[in-house]
Design a protein that fits this description.
Blueprint lengths: L2 H8 L18 H4 L5 E2 L3 E9 L3 E8 L5 E7 L7 H14 L10 E7 L2 E6 L5 E2 H8 L4 H20 L2 E2 L8 E5 L5 E5 L6 E2 L6 H6 L11 H4 L6 H17 L9 H10 L5 H4 L7 H10 L11 H15 L34 H26 L3 H9 L5 E3 L11 E9 L13 E5 L4 E8 L7 E7 L4 E4 L8 E9 L2 E7 L16 E8 L16 E3 L5 E5 L5 E6 L4 E9 L4 E4 L9 E7 L4 E6 L10 E9 L5
Helix pairs in contact: 5-8, 5-12, 8-11, 11-12, 13-14
């Protein structure tokens, strides 16, 4: 392709401002026709959320899991173009391989209603271009983190041979991390191709121009073959705009802008915005990315990311305390959060899709093998097949609202009291904690702000325990429970008397923790009956909890009859303890006579206000005059 023809091709999109998640400016009848439809038997189309260069973007809901995603549908008037359809299919195949946390995930694609579609991660946030338009130039101290994150996404894509070709601020969404910091997501690989060195020869020869005039590399404009260094140039133009609030080059026409990319020398960002205090090292970093010759640029996104980190450490004085450290981009030491708030609502993720498809495959195999085993009379084998534990997860995987669909978990798992099952039945999550034999476990769940959360535990021997002591916005805990074998833990919500509908909270996750503890490390629940009393030995400090406001802990003295000093401590005053004489005693030290086998009763003091849902206590019995 000649330079003139390349420039002419670029004029077809003089603004280049539309993105996959930009504001919808053309909600046509054809766009609306998708609303309410079920796509591929799995996705219900909810609303139009934006338009891209290749199609319309909808918010959809996965019917089985109740989680939301974004669906990009190719424009119908473009669906007959073989080149565009081919590009779309290659986008799906290529981008679905990307897993970087700063890349918008693509995890499904197909054909529906005569159009091609992609199912991708639904990200709540604003694009970087809109933020700069609204707020003006971004200080280097803030922008550096975003630049490093974008480099991480590009680095992974380039390692897969994928060149973005249309990198611009509008194709970077800014959301928030779980810690409340800026979190970048590179999106809209709709114009990306596989690295042309790995592409079919006939397509390489065509070298069609793809991109946005303000951010296109010189080699793109000339219609030459491009590699990952073309993205480095586009990223340099992006950094320039973010730091200055201005395009690198401007003009009255797209051709004028493109010509400057080919002939002009880039300004230093500090020259455009001297009041922003942009350091000289940042000027050098940006201008090197904008070198006209690819050989003179940063050669890889990793190399550029490391330079960003080093310059940040040299130029930014962090007056707010230590930075959150989680994962390095490359060899530098400036690091950032690796999780956005995607886990903070019911948005569909790749792990959900993988788990769902794996469960379907597992069920199909189970049914087939069950029939084979049944024909052979293998009932016991069928039971093993259907009940065998799957791999554990640290994130809730819907659907898990029954014992049969319980998620297998390890020590901790994050989940949500999300989509209601019905108008009167709220979401309930079931988890399976594997193990064998008799054990002692503590189960805790953190609070959800607008929900009265509850938990219950069931084991294979028929023991069942539940707790709902906390109020709205409080957590729950069951300490040191005796269980046999695997255990099922369920997390749900308790409705207020005047509450008509269960609450849905797709923004605040709870964390469920299950700790397996030593049997001799404290009391063992339940111990509110004489037959279950926990043994207490001389000089041994025993610890326990009153989990509920009506909980009673019974301890049995195993020492010899005699006079002893009993020291009882509690983290809250409203606790009392009694012996056979029935006298209520408060925490502290007391010299008393204990008979071998005598019961010590620990309970809440009903005359005192109950300030905590659970109260921890400790007790130690020593010989008279030996208390400590």
């Amino acid at each position: 392709m000649t330079r003139a023809s390349a420039l002419e091709a670029a004029v077809k999109d003089p603004t280049g401002q539309s993105t996959a998640f930009s504001e919808d400016r053309r909600v046509s009848d054809s766009n609306q026709a998708w609303l309410g439809k079920i796509v591929d038997g799995r996705y219900r189309v909810l609303e139009v959320i934006g338009r891209g260069g290749m199609g319309v973007v909808y918010r959809v809901e996965h019917l089985r899991m109740g989680k939301v995603a974004a669906m990009k549908v190719l424009h119908r008037d473009l669906a007959d173009d073989a080149d565009i359809v081919h590009r779309f299919e290659r986008e799906a195949a290529a981008v679905s391989r990307l897993h970087h946390p700063h890349t918008v995930q693509v995890f499904d694609f197909g054909t529906a209603g005569g159009a091609l579609y992609l199912i991708m991660e639904y990200v709540r946030g604003q694009d970087l271009g809109r933020i700069v338009d609204r707020d003006g130039p971004m200080p280097w101290a803030r922008a550096a983190a975003l630049f490093a994150q974008i480099c991480g996404a590009l680095q992974e894509a380039h390692e897969y041979g994928i060149v973005h070709r249309d990198l611009k601020p509008e194709n970077v969404l800014i959301t928030r991390s779980t810690a409340g910091r800026d979190y970048a997501k590179v999106l809209d690989f709709g114009l990306a191709k596989l690295d042309e060195r790995n592409a079919p020869k006939r397509e390489t020869e065509r070298s069609q121009i793809v991109g946005t005039p303000y951010f296109m590399s010189p080699e793109q404009i000339r219609g030459e073959e491009v590699d990952s260094r073309s993205d480095i140039y586009s990223f340099g133009a992006l950094m320039f705009q973010v730091l200055t609030g201005q395009h690198l080059y401007s003009g009255t026409t797209a051709v004028g802008v493109l010509t400057k990319h080919l002939t002009a020398a880039p300004d230093a960002p500090s020259m455009r915005m001297p009041k922003m205090g942009i350091p000289p090292s940042v000027d050098h970093l940006v201008r090197k990315a904008l070198a006209r010759d690819p050989a003179n640029r940063w050669q890889t996104a990793q190399q550029l990311g490391e330079a960003i980190e080093e310059i940040y450490l040299e130029t930014v004085v962090d007056a707010t305390g230590p930075k959150t450290v989680s994962k390095k981009l490359g060899g530098g030491t400036l690091v950032f959060d690796t999780h956005d708030d995607a886990g903070s609502d019911v948005r569909l993720r790749r792990s959900d899709i993988d788990a769902y498809e794996a469960s379907i495959k597992r069920r199909r195999v189970s049914v087939w093998l069950s029939l084979v085993l049944l024909a052979a009379g293998g009932a016991a084998a069928i039971g093993w097949l259907l009940l065998r534990p799957p791999g554990v997860t640290r994130e809730e995987r819907e659907p898990n609202n029954s014992i049969e669909t319980a998620d297998a978990i390890g020590r901790t798992v994050r989940g949500f009291i999300g989509k209601r099952i019905s108008a009167t039945e709220g979401d309930k999550d079931f988890f399976r904690f594997e193990g064998s034999g008799r054990r002692v476990v503590t189960v805790m769940v953190t609070a959800v702000p607008n929900i009265d959360i509850n938990i219950s535990i069931d084991d294979t021997s028929g023991h069942s325990t539940s707790i709902d002591e906390g109020r709205v916005g409080e957590g729950e805990a069951l300490h040191r429970r005796k269980i046999d074998g695997p255990v099922i833990v369920s997390v749900g919500q308790t409705l207020a008397k005047d509450q008509k509908q269960p609450t849905e909270n797709v923004s605040d996750a709870y964390e469920l923790t299950i700790l397996e503890e030593r049997a001799d490390a404290g009391e063992i629940e339940p111990n509110n009956m004489e037959a279950d009393a926990t043994a207490i030995e001389p000089t041994y400090e025993l610890r326990g909890y009153l989990d509920t406001r009506t909980d009673v802990d019974l301890l049995r003295w195993t020492g010899e009859t005699g006079t002893y000093i009993v020291v009882v401590r509690a983290d809250a005053v409203p606790l009392q303890w009694k012996l056979a004489d029935g006298k209520a005693r408060t925490p502290g030290e007391a010299t008393i006579e204990l008979k071998k086998g005598e019961l010590i009763r620990i309970e809440r003091n009903p005359a005192q206000p109950q300030t905590k849902p659970d109260v921890s206590w400790s007790i130690v019995v020593v010989g008279a005059g030996r208390a400590n």
